[in-house]
Design goal:
Helices cover 67% and strands 0% of the residues. The chain is an all-alpha fold. The chain is globular. It folds into two domains: 1-113, Hypothetical protein af1432; 136-221, no CATH class. It has helices at 7-17, 20-40, 44-53, 62-71, 81-96, 102-109, 120-131, 140-152, 158-175, 182-195, 204-218. The protein is built from eleven helices and no strands. The structure holds fe (ii) ion (FE2) (2 copies). Residues 54-55, 58, 85-86, 111-112 line the site of one fe (ii) ion.
Length: 221
Amino acid sequence: MLAELSPFNISLDVKRRLSKARYQHSLLAAQTAEQMAKSYGVDTKNAVLAGLLHDWDKDLSVDELVLKARMYGIEVPLQPESLLHALTAAISLPEVYPSLPGEVVIAIGRHTTAAPQMSRLDMIIYVSDIIEPSRKYHDPGFVEQVEELRIMSGPRSLEIVFTRSLCLTLAHLLDKQSYIHPVSIEAMADVLDSFGSSMDLADRGIYQQSRHVLGLARGLL
Ligand SMILES: [Fe+2]
Ligand SMILES: [Fe+2]
Protein backbone atom coordinates (compact mmCIF):
# COMPACT_ATOMS: atom_id res chain seq x y z
CA MET A 1 0.00 0.00 0.00
CA LEU A 2 1.40 3.41 -0.99
CA ALA A 3 -0.68 6.10 0.65
CA GLU A 4 -0.86 9.83 0.07
CA LEU A 5 0.67 11.92 2.85
CA SER A 6 -2.15 14.03 4.25
CA PRO A 7 -3.31 14.01 7.87
CA PHE A 8 -6.87 13.29 6.69
CA ASN A 9 -5.89 10.23 4.61
CA ILE A 10 -3.56 9.03 7.33
CA SER A 11 -6.27 9.29 9.97
CA LEU A 12 -8.48 7.07 7.77
CA ASP A 13 -5.67 4.50 7.48
CA VAL A 14 -5.14 4.62 11.25
CA LYS A 15 -8.89 4.21 11.83
CA ARG A 16 -8.91 1.08 9.66
CA ARG A 17 -5.86 -0.36 11.38
CA LEU A 18 -6.55 0.25 15.08
CA SER A 19 -9.29 -0.47 17.60
CA LYS A 20 -11.78 2.32 18.25
CA ALA A 21 -10.18 3.25 21.59
CA ARG A 22 -6.66 3.23 20.15
CA TYR A 23 -7.81 5.31 17.18
CA GLN A 24 -9.34 7.83 19.58
CA HIS A 25 -6.07 7.87 21.57
CA SER A 26 -4.11 8.50 18.34
CA LEU A 27 -6.41 11.37 17.29
CA LEU A 28 -6.15 13.00 20.71
CA ALA A 29 -2.38 12.50 20.86
CA ALA A 30 -2.20 14.25 17.46
CA GLN A 31 -4.41 17.09 18.70
CA THR A 32 -2.35 17.46 21.90
CA ALA A 33 0.87 17.35 19.88
CA GLU A 34 -0.47 20.06 17.56
CA GLN A 35 -1.29 22.34 20.52
CA MET A 36 2.13 21.73 22.04
CA ALA A 37 3.84 22.36 18.69
CA LYS A 38 2.06 25.73 18.45
CA SER A 39 3.11 26.62 22.01
CA TYR A 40 6.72 25.58 21.51
CA GLY A 41 7.31 26.73 17.92
CA VAL A 42 7.59 23.28 16.32
CA ASP A 43 6.22 22.30 12.87
CA THR A 44 2.55 21.51 13.53
CA LYS A 45 2.06 19.21 10.52
CA ASN A 46 4.92 16.97 11.63
CA ALA A 47 3.47 16.93 15.16
CA VAL A 48 0.05 15.86 13.84
CA LEU A 49 1.54 13.16 11.58
CA ALA A 50 3.66 11.70 14.38
CA GLY A 51 0.75 11.83 16.84
CA LEU A 52 -1.57 10.04 14.41
CA LEU A 53 0.95 7.36 13.50
CA HIS A 54 2.81 6.74 16.76
CA ASP A 55 0.80 3.62 17.69
CA TRP A 56 0.60 2.23 14.14
CA ASP A 57 1.68 -1.26 15.30
CA LYS A 58 0.16 -1.19 18.78
CA ASP A 59 -2.74 -3.51 17.97
CA LEU A 60 -0.57 -6.25 16.47
CA SER A 61 -0.55 -9.46 18.50
CA VAL A 62 2.65 -10.37 20.34
CA ASP A 63 3.37 -13.07 17.73
CA GLU A 64 2.85 -10.62 14.86
CA LEU A 65 5.04 -8.01 16.56
CA VAL A 66 7.84 -10.45 17.24
CA LEU A 67 7.67 -11.75 13.67
CA LYS A 68 7.71 -8.24 12.26
CA ALA A 69 10.60 -7.24 14.54
CA ARG A 70 12.62 -10.27 13.41
CA MET A 71 11.84 -9.47 9.79
CA TYR A 72 13.33 -6.01 10.26
CA GLY A 73 16.32 -7.24 12.28
CA ILE A 74 15.23 -5.81 15.64
CA GLU A 75 16.74 -7.74 18.55
CA VAL A 76 13.64 -9.21 20.14
CA PRO A 77 15.09 -10.78 23.33
CA LEU A 78 16.34 -7.36 24.49
CA GLN A 79 12.97 -5.68 24.03
CA PRO A 80 9.90 -6.22 26.16
CA GLU A 81 6.99 -6.63 23.76
CA SER A 82 5.36 -3.41 24.94
CA LEU A 83 8.28 -1.43 23.49
CA LEU A 84 8.53 -3.21 20.15
CA HIS A 85 5.58 -1.46 18.49
CA ALA A 86 7.47 1.85 18.34
CA LEU A 87 10.53 0.30 16.72
CA THR A 88 8.65 -1.79 14.14
CA ALA A 89 6.48 1.21 13.21
CA ALA A 90 9.51 3.46 12.73
CA ILE A 91 11.15 0.94 10.42
CA SER A 92 8.08 -0.01 8.39
CA LEU A 93 6.15 3.28 8.07
CA PRO A 94 8.51 4.80 5.46
CA GLU A 95 7.56 1.87 3.19
CA VAL A 96 3.88 2.77 3.58
CA TYR A 97 4.39 6.54 3.35
CA PRO A 98 7.66 7.15 1.45
CA SER A 99 7.42 10.92 1.88
CA LEU A 100 6.98 10.76 5.65
CA PRO A 101 9.59 13.20 7.04
CA GLY A 102 12.55 11.55 8.75
CA GLU A 103 12.03 13.56 11.93
CA VAL A 104 8.47 12.19 12.21
CA VAL A 105 9.75 8.63 11.87
CA ILE A 106 12.37 9.24 14.56
CA ALA A 107 9.79 10.71 16.97
CA ILE A 108 7.59 7.64 16.47
CA GLY A 109 10.53 5.33 17.17
CA ARG A 110 11.35 7.18 20.40
CA HIS A 111 7.85 7.53 21.83
CA THR A 112 8.04 4.61 24.29
CA THR A 113 11.59 4.70 25.66
CA ALA A 114 12.72 8.23 24.76
CA ALA A 115 16.41 8.54 23.82
CA PRO A 116 19.43 10.77 24.34
CA GLN A 117 19.45 13.95 22.23
CA MET A 118 15.68 14.18 21.89
CA SER A 119 14.52 16.74 19.33
CA ARG A 120 11.72 19.12 20.28
CA LEU A 121 9.34 17.06 18.15
CA ASP A 122 10.48 13.85 19.92
CA MET A 123 9.73 15.48 23.29
CA ILE A 124 6.30 16.65 22.15
CA ILE A 125 5.28 13.17 20.95
CA TYR A 126 6.62 11.51 24.10
CA VAL A 127 4.61 13.90 26.31
CA SER A 128 1.45 13.94 24.13
CA ASP A 129 1.21 10.17 24.33
CA ILE A 130 1.10 10.44 28.15
CA ILE A 131 -1.13 13.50 28.62
CA GLU A 132 -3.72 13.28 25.82
CA PRO A 133 -7.11 13.75 27.53
CA SER A 134 -8.58 10.25 26.95
CA ARG A 135 -5.60 8.43 28.46
CA LYS A 136 -6.66 6.70 31.68
CA TYR A 137 -4.37 5.54 34.50
CA HIS A 138 -5.24 3.27 37.42
CA ASP A 139 -2.82 4.54 40.07
CA PRO A 140 -4.45 7.62 41.72
CA GLY A 141 -1.04 9.17 42.47
CA PHE A 142 -0.03 8.83 38.82
CA VAL A 143 -3.37 10.32 37.68
CA GLU A 144 -2.68 13.40 39.81
CA GLN A 145 0.85 13.74 38.45
CA VAL A 146 -0.34 13.44 34.84
CA GLU A 147 -2.92 16.15 35.56
CA GLU A 148 -0.05 18.39 36.76
CA LEU A 149 1.78 17.63 33.50
CA ARG A 150 -1.28 18.69 31.48
CA ILE A 151 -1.27 22.01 33.35
CA MET A 152 2.49 22.47 32.88
CA SER A 153 2.31 21.84 29.13
CA GLY A 154 2.37 25.24 27.43
CA PRO A 155 3.19 27.57 30.34
CA ARG A 156 6.45 25.80 31.32
CA SER A 157 9.42 25.04 29.07
CA LEU A 158 9.22 21.98 26.82
CA GLU A 159 12.42 20.60 28.36
CA ILE A 160 11.02 20.68 31.88
CA VAL A 161 7.67 19.16 30.81
CA PHE A 162 9.55 16.35 29.04
CA THR A 163 11.95 15.87 31.99
CA ARG A 164 9.00 15.62 34.37
CA SER A 165 7.20 13.14 32.05
CA LEU A 166 10.24 10.89 31.77
CA CYS A 167 10.89 11.12 35.51
CA LEU A 168 7.29 10.09 36.27
CA THR A 169 7.51 7.15 33.87
CA LEU A 170 10.79 5.91 35.37
CA ALA A 171 9.54 6.38 38.96
CA HIS A 172 6.36 4.46 38.07
CA LEU A 173 8.37 1.59 36.55
CA LEU A 174 10.67 1.54 39.60
CA ASP A 175 7.62 1.39 41.89
CA LYS A 176 6.19 -1.56 39.97
CA GLN A 177 9.64 -3.19 39.71
CA SER A 178 9.09 -3.28 35.95
CA TYR A 179 11.77 -3.45 33.30
CA ILE A 180 13.43 -0.13 32.47
CA HIS A 181 15.11 0.03 29.08
CA PRO A 182 18.72 1.31 29.38
CA VAL A 183 18.07 3.88 26.67
CA SER A 184 15.44 5.53 28.92
CA ILE A 185 18.07 5.90 31.63
CA GLU A 186 20.48 7.40 29.09
CA ALA A 187 17.70 9.75 27.97
CA MET A 188 17.13 10.96 31.54
CA ALA A 189 20.86 11.53 32.11
CA ASP A 190 21.17 13.34 28.78
CA VAL A 191 18.27 15.75 29.31
CA LEU A 192 19.47 16.59 32.83
CA ASP A 193 23.03 17.19 31.62
CA SER A 194 21.86 19.22 28.62
CA PHE A 195 19.28 21.45 30.27
CA GLY A 196 19.98 21.16 33.99
CA SER A 197 22.14 24.28 34.18
CA SER A 198 19.62 26.41 32.28
CA MET A 199 16.60 25.41 34.39
CA ASP A 200 15.18 28.28 36.41
CA LEU A 201 14.52 28.25 40.14
CA ALA A 202 10.94 26.96 39.72
CA ASP A 203 12.33 23.90 37.94
CA ARG A 204 14.94 22.96 40.56
CA GLY A 205 12.57 20.63 42.45
CA ILE A 206 11.84 18.64 39.28
CA TYR A 207 15.54 18.60 38.43
CA GLN A 208 16.53 17.25 41.85
CA GLN A 209 13.76 14.65 41.89
CA SER A 210 14.75 13.52 38.40
CA ARG A 211 18.41 13.19 39.48
CA HIS A 212 17.25 11.05 42.40
CA VAL A 213 15.12 8.79 40.18
CA LEU A 214 17.99 8.54 37.70
CA GLY A 215 20.28 7.33 40.50
CA LEU A 216 17.78 4.65 41.53
CA ALA A 217 17.29 3.51 37.92
CA ARG A 218 21.04 3.38 37.33
CA GLY A 219 21.31 1.14 40.38
CA LEU A 220 19.40 -1.49 38.42
CA LEU A 221 21.90 -1.66 35.56
FE1 LIG B 1 2.77 3.48 21.94
FE1 LIG C 1 0.20 5.86 22.44
